[in-house]
Amino acid sequence: MSQLPPIPRAPGRLSHAWALWLKGSILLAFLAASSAPSPLYAIYREAWGFSAFTLTVVFSSYALAMLAALLVFGALSNHRGRREVVLASIALELVAVLLFWSADSVAWLLAARVLQGVATGMATSALGAGLLDLHRERGALVNAVAPMVGLGVGALGTSALVQFAPAPTQLVFDLLLIVFGVLAVAAFYLPETVERRAGAWRSLRPSFTIPARARTTMWQILPINTAQWALGGFYLSLGPTLARVATGSSVPLIGGALIAALVLSSALTIALMRQSAPRSALLTGAAGLVVGVSLAMAGVQLHSTAPLFVGTVIAGLGFGAAFSGSIRSLVPLAAPLERAGLMSGFFVLSYLAFSLPAIAAGLLVGQFGLQSIALGYGFALVLMAGAAGLAIWLRGSAAVAAAT
Q1: Strand (E) positions, 244-338?
Q2: DSSP secondary structure code for residue 12 in this structure
Q3: How far apart are CA 404 and CA 268, in angstroms?
Q4: Taken in order 214, 217, 221, 223, is the CA torsion positive or negative?
Q5: What does each C-alpha distance from 68 to 144, 344, 347 come to in angstroms?
Q6: Level-2 CATH architecture, domain 16-195+212-399
Q7: Domain coordinates of the chain in residue numbers?
Q8: Alpha-carbon distance 86 to 373, whole Å?
Q9: Is pLDDT at 194 greater than 50 in this prediction?
């Protein structure tokens, strides 16, 4: 699939090489901000006394708001330009961070998470498409790696502040205000990569704009994509609490380290497997999820730290491989002006898997306990990933047989 025809760079704008790294940094910052509240939930629960179900609702409100933003704003940057949508999303993120900073109740926390979800949804589609505009191969790599690194940095950084710094529920957001303030200034100098065109208001009508050529592939990768994102949603919502239950330690860094183990190993695998065939990446991902989740759940059952973390790293390797295979299976199937819609559609499906199973798990924790729910959740993910891997292998074998 060809690149967009080059647009003359306006005076004072960054080169495409610098713009690629700036857009990657902005994407990383948005995802770091999204995981930053996770290690704070234990502090909020102690202060305000809400349940595990309420915790997962607060967490998932972000994902559902992001999903809605992808549906509504996913194609907006095709009409208004990538740069304008990125600047608007940073402005919304700054307001969301201010809401977090002043939160003194669950209602405030919900409002902040919802606004953050909207801002991240707008940014994800515009940045994702813009990165592909700048360079298809490098853009796809940054699209896959930056979110994972961001999630790990946000969770681990906040955990460190909770453990070692005063007033972490404010200091975290002080730092985020500075980061997004700097990025807002830098984003002003981004070059535009698409021409403005009519139809911006019509593009706000919620729609699933997956290009026709990509639909079959999208449905084929859906089972493995659902399994990996459901795992991510569980870890980012209930992971720190699960770490305390499984390890018997209340050290805040343990919870942040568990999230970081999942997402940073994912980022490493994405970088290492960027040249591998998409089908091989998907099969590797399925195997990693089956083995890793099984080992991590053994750690939960045995209250043993080593298998919990080793299994989480292996599951993260599986997540990264499957995510890389999914992105690289889809990207060549979209024309330049279809990219924003494709990325939006892909992340809509991903964030449904990220949020809804986590909400269901939080609802059931009160009845059955976190350990039992974690084991049942893990068993379901192992079955789904195993079935998805088998289906991918059988399709490949059938294709080889047909070719011969």
Answers
A1: none
A2: T
A3: 36
A4: positive
A5: 21, 10, 11
A6: Up-down Bundle (1.20)
A7: 16-195+212-399
A8: 39
A9: yes
